[in-house]
Design goal:
By secondary structure, the protein is mainly α. The protein contains three helices and no strands. α2 packs antiparallel against α3. The radius of gyration is 30 Å and the shape is rod-shaped.
Length: about 130
Protein backbone atom coordinates (compact mmCIF):
# COMPACT_ATOMS: atom_id res chain seq x y z
CA UNK A 1 0.00 0.00 0.00
CA UNK A 2 2.06 2.92 -1.27
CA UNK A 3 -0.56 5.54 -2.18
CA UNK A 4 -1.79 8.57 -0.30
CA UNK A 5 -3.69 7.52 2.85
CA UNK A 6 -6.94 9.14 3.72
CA UNK A 7 -6.86 11.33 6.78
CA UNK A 8 -5.58 14.62 7.96
CA UNK A 9 -1.89 13.85 8.14
CA UNK A 10 -1.56 12.80 4.52
CA UNK A 11 0.89 10.02 5.41
CA UNK A 12 2.38 8.02 2.53
CA UNK A 13 3.25 4.39 2.55
CA UNK A 14 2.17 1.47 4.62
CA UNK A 15 0.26 2.00 7.81
CA UNK A 16 2.35 -0.73 9.40
CA UNK A 17 4.86 1.19 11.57
CA UNK A 18 7.10 -0.14 14.30
CA UNK A 19 5.42 -3.53 14.31
CA UNK A 20 1.90 -2.21 14.88
CA UNK A 21 -0.99 -3.34 12.78
CA UNK A 22 -2.90 -0.71 10.80
CA UNK A 23 -5.75 -0.27 13.28
CA UNK A 24 -3.50 0.10 16.32
CA UNK A 25 -1.25 2.51 14.46
CA UNK A 26 -4.20 4.66 13.41
CA UNK A 27 -5.53 4.74 17.00
CA UNK A 28 -2.11 5.70 18.34
CA UNK A 29 -1.78 8.37 15.64
CA UNK A 30 -5.17 9.89 16.53
CA UNK A 31 -4.35 9.89 20.27
CA UNK A 32 -1.05 11.65 19.55
CA UNK A 33 -2.81 14.19 17.34
CA UNK A 34 -5.43 14.89 19.98
CA UNK A 35 -2.77 15.34 22.69
CA UNK A 36 -0.92 17.74 20.40
CA UNK A 37 -4.07 19.75 19.69
CA UNK A 38 -4.93 19.87 23.41
CA UNK A 39 -1.40 21.02 24.27
CA UNK A 40 -1.64 23.73 21.61
CA UNK A 41 -4.97 24.94 22.99
CA UNK A 42 -3.50 25.02 26.51
CA UNK A 43 -0.49 27.06 25.35
CA UNK A 44 -2.73 29.55 23.55
CA UNK A 45 -4.86 29.96 26.68
CA UNK A 46 -1.74 30.57 28.77
CA UNK A 47 -0.53 33.13 26.23
CA UNK A 48 -3.86 34.97 26.39
CA UNK A 49 -3.80 35.06 30.19
CA UNK A 50 -0.20 36.25 30.36
CA UNK A 51 -0.84 38.87 27.68
CA UNK A 52 -3.71 40.32 29.71
CA UNK A 53 -1.50 40.34 32.82
CA UNK A 54 1.29 42.12 30.93
CA UNK A 55 -1.09 44.80 29.64
CA UNK A 56 -2.60 45.29 33.11
CA UNK A 57 0.84 45.62 34.69
CA UNK A 58 1.96 48.11 32.04
CA UNK A 59 -1.13 50.25 32.44
CA UNK A 60 -0.90 50.12 36.23
CA UNK A 61 2.76 51.17 36.12
CA UNK A 62 2.04 54.09 33.78
CA UNK A 63 -0.92 55.25 35.85
CA UNK A 64 1.00 54.93 39.13
CA UNK A 65 3.91 56.92 37.70
CA UNK A 66 1.57 59.69 36.46
CA UNK A 67 -0.35 59.91 39.73
CA UNK A 68 2.82 59.90 41.85
CA UNK A 69 4.38 62.57 39.65
CA UNK A 70 1.24 64.70 39.92
CA UNK A 71 0.90 64.25 43.71
CA UNK A 72 4.54 64.58 44.73
CA UNK A 73 6.08 66.76 41.98
CA UNK A 74 9.03 64.36 41.93
CA UNK A 75 10.78 64.27 38.54
CA UNK A 76 10.93 60.48 38.44
CA UNK A 77 8.85 58.59 41.01
CA UNK A 78 10.42 55.16 40.48
CA UNK A 79 8.85 53.33 43.42
CA UNK A 80 5.24 53.92 42.34
CA UNK A 81 5.35 51.89 39.09
CA UNK A 82 7.39 49.15 40.76
CA UNK A 83 4.82 48.86 43.56
CA UNK A 84 1.96 48.86 41.05
CA UNK A 85 3.51 46.02 39.05
CA UNK A 86 4.22 44.09 42.25
CA UNK A 87 0.60 44.41 43.34
CA UNK A 88 -0.77 43.40 39.93
CA UNK A 89 1.48 40.36 39.51
CA UNK A 90 1.26 39.10 43.08
CA UNK A 91 -2.52 39.42 43.23
CA UNK A 92 -3.09 37.57 39.95
CA UNK A 93 -5.76 34.92 40.42
CA UNK A 94 -6.68 36.05 43.92
CA UNK A 95 -9.86 37.60 45.15
CA UNK A 96 -10.42 41.31 45.04
CA UNK A 97 -10.26 41.57 48.85
CA UNK A 98 -6.73 40.12 48.85
CA UNK A 99 -5.69 42.64 46.20
CA UNK A 100 -7.14 45.52 48.22
CA UNK A 101 -5.32 44.28 51.35
CA UNK A 102 -2.04 44.08 49.45
CA UNK A 103 -2.53 47.53 47.99
CA UNK A 104 -3.33 48.94 51.43
CA UNK A 105 -0.20 47.31 52.85
CA UNK A 106 2.00 48.80 50.13
CA UNK A 107 0.43 52.23 50.64
CA UNK A 108 0.90 52.05 54.42
CA UNK A 109 4.50 50.94 53.92
CA UNK A 110 5.18 53.91 51.66
CA UNK A 111 3.65 56.34 54.17
CA UNK A 112 5.57 54.91 57.14
CA UNK A 113 8.87 54.88 55.24
CA UNK A 114 8.29 58.45 54.08
CA UNK A 115 7.63 59.53 57.67
CA UNK A 116 10.73 57.72 58.93
CA UNK A 117 12.95 59.14 56.19
CA UNK A 118 11.47 62.60 56.77
CA UNK A 119 12.08 62.38 60.53
CA UNK A 120 15.67 61.22 59.97
CA UNK A 121 16.32 64.04 57.52
CA UNK A 122 14.86 66.59 59.93
CA UNK A 123 17.07 65.24 62.75
CA UNK A 124 20.18 65.55 60.58
CA UNK A 125 19.29 69.10 59.56
CA UNK A 126 18.94 70.04 63.22
CA UNK A 127 22.32 68.46 64.03
CA UNK A 128 24.03 70.38 61.22
CA UNK A 129 22.33 73.61 62.29
CA UNK A 130 23.37 73.03 65.90
CA UNK A 131 26.95 72.28 64.87
CA UNK A 132 27.17 75.50 62.85
CA UNK A 133 25.99 77.73 65.69
Amino acid sequence: MTGQRAGRGGRRGSSRRAGLDAERFDEAWERANERGRAAGRDRMQQLRIKSVLAVQAGLAAALAWAVARWLTDMPSPIFAPAAAVAVITSSFGRRRSNTVELLAGVTLGIIVSDLLIGAEALRRIREVAAAQS
